[in-house]
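User: My instructor asked us to take a sequence, write out its structure as tokens, and then describe one feature of it. I'm not sure where to start. Here is the sequence I was given:
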Amino acid sequence: MPSPYRALFAAPGTKGFAAAGFIGRMPLSMMGIGVVTMISQLTGRYGLAGGLSATIALAAAVLGPQVSRLVDRHGQRRVLRPATLVALAASAGLLLTAHYGWPDWLLFVCAVGIGAVPSLGAMIRARWAALYRGTPRLHTAYSFESVVDEVCFIFGPIISIGLSTAWFPEAGPLLAAGFLAVGVFWLTAQRATEPAPHPRERHGGGSALRAAGLQVLVATFVATGAIFGAVDVVTVAFAEEQGHKAAASVVLALYAAGSCVAGIVFGLLHFTGAPARRWLLGVCAMAVSMIPLLLVGNLPFLAVALFVAGLSIAPTMITTMSLIEEHVPRAHLTEGMTWVSTGLAVGVALGSSAAGWVIDAAGARAGYGVPAVSGAVAVAVGFLGYRRLSRPVPRRGGTVEQHSERQERHVA
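Assistant: Let's start with the prediction itself. The structure tokens for your sequence are:
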């Protein structure tokens, strides 16, 4: 491992919470696709499977920021364990309902409950921020976490689908629930590195989303999430049209691998100047990288194009985390990070739905127009909100509302 990454783990407790965070994040990429695989095998109803997967994603988008907001107020241990127990109980209910063929409405109720799963990525990044805030090591830490995210997205679906098809239908979601339990309870047992909570009476009850800079980031990442959701769906359809549907997982793994490689390299670099410019450049690069997909004619070309497209993802996400720290008061940092994940989740749902409609109407190749348009929207929102991002919020003192008002005055 390169020396900046070795130095990252010099602080006591870092290896422990990083390992717990990795295990606890595996369900992020395993649960949705595992439920789709399980339901399609048990019932053959892909519409029901897709509906449940979308329900889990949207429920997490709604509940996730609220869980993180409570974490900021009361601490990770006090909030994560009850929230995880709710998600685990709902997961058990969904598996039992699917196995015994109980009513469909009960499946959807359980899917909503799974949405209480905590955003472990935000929790781990908050711990890194508490350790290395104001130092170059925080950039390296965010880079490392982006690489961990991509590793989860490379191997999670493969493990989940493989177990559900080779062992028994419920195996994938069951293992995802196991990873969640181990990761969360291991993480919350590590009290020494837990960020200090910020009780409500110390900073008011406003949401992190009141910060104008965060609003720009979330809106942009709705469009960015649409890119990811559309690329996944269209790539599967394109591979099926080419007669090699199974190759879709390999091609999509190369998309994540490109991001993983870029994240490792990006973490070795040290930057000066405003992160807002790097962020906008990254958003533009993601949008431009979608254009070659409109010209794909075969799977090898698609694999190369997606690997290149993936190179812009991790650097943009890393810079986004730095911007969140600049624009969101420390008392709301975990919630702020979770709101970006929420924007991505909403975008993924929108992008996958739009791509499916285009594929049905005009074929898989036409479906790549959806991520191309989504990229253009992301760039437009990024440029429109750039002035807000280029002026950080003061770091000390004041409530969220006061921070937002100060930023609005700067923009005006």
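For the description part of your assignment, you could build on this observation: The domain at 1-197 is CATH 1.20.1250.20 (Growth Hormone; Chain: A;). Try explaining in your own words what that tells you about the chain.
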